[in-house]
Structures are given as structure tokens and as C-alpha cells.
Fold:
Amino acid sequence: GAVVSQHPSRVICKSGTSVKIECRSLDFQATTMFWYRQFPKQSLMLMATSNEGSKATYEQGVEKDKFLINHASLTLSTLTVTSAHPEDSSFYICSAREAGNSSPLHFGNGTRLTVT
Amino acid sequence: DQQVKQNSPSLSVQEGRISILNCDYTNSMFDYFLWYKKYPAEGPTFLISISSIKDKNEDGRFTVFLNKSAKHLSLHIVPSQPGDSAVYFCAANLGGNKLVFGAGTILRVKS
Structure:
């Protein structure tokens, strides 16, 4: 089945630094990838939709200058958390869908970001 | 505004019995629904889905029921196994590619 690989799985950084998270679709091409964030004991919240070759679409309340998304190829999307603060500490998960709107989203294993 | 609600934060079931996980939604524009299973520190894994034009979909031990008039769906797992212990998320598709997730239900299957 479709596999989505996310890297790194865990990262600790200092306040003010930037962190890049990669999301790759391993056996299929994904023109669209999605970035979610999960707070402890809460649901997955869609942050943005990453579109290959064009600008990402951000959900309301998500700062596009803080969460930079680049979808450089049909198999890779990156999320960069810029000038990270402790409140950005969270579990970030990417997902992608194979061709066809009715196919399920496949998720990466997530990245646990801790900002100290 | 929670469009997808999972009102039970946790559920405990004896091994071999049936697990029933419930989900309610408010938006009648959702065109299909999915259940995901999630272990700690991992991404969600797709389990089963159902189109809004159907009322039941079955896959092995997992069956999803959809009651459109009540805006309610449920996931039945039978027989439940200890390996089923995880967080289960209900999700609804709002046209195109947008999935709206419920808050999740922690299922514990006791042996």
C-alpha cells in the first residue's frame, strides 16, 4: 500500500531557531500533501494544503510566514517552522493521497517537535 | 465549531467482545467518512471508510455503519483483540481533499 515517510521523527531545538520537516510519498506521486498538527489529547488540525508547483493553502489562523511550506516535487513536501517558540512544540503529521478523491489519506509517522 | 465529535474519550472492552466506537457530525456536506487508528508517537493508519450514499461497509473484523438522518456513524470491531488497543479517530471528507477529524477515542482491550 501507499507509504508516506516523514523525517525527522523527533527534534528538539532552541527558541528562535528554524526546523525543517520532510514528507515524502514513497511509492506514489502526490500533487497535494497535507500538514496537520496535533496537541496533546486533541484532534488532528489541518494546518495547510501543500500543492506541487504552487503556493500552499493555509487554514484560518495558521501563520504562513511562520510555517513555510515548499512542495518542490511530486514526492516531497517540506514544512519549516521558523523562529520557533515553545508554544510551537507539538506533534506535526503530514499526509498524502493517491490519485482519485475517494482514496484515503495516508499519514506519515509524525514529528515530535520540542522547542526549549 | 466541532463538526465531527467523538463524545467518548475512552472505551474499555474485554477481549473477544464487541467494541463500538461512535462519531457524530453536523455538516451534511460531508461526502464520505473514514476511521483511522493511531498508536502513540505514530501517524494515523487508515482502517475503513464509507461513502455517504451507503449505510454499511464491512472489512474483516471492522464494520462501519452510517446513519445519515441522525448524522451518526459507528465503528464495530468484533471480536476485539488486545492489539486493537489504540486511539481511533473518526474523520469526514468535506469535498476535495479536506478531512475534518474528531478528537479521538482511546480503546483498551483487556485480555
User: Anything to note?
Assistant: Chain A has a mean pLDDT of 90.
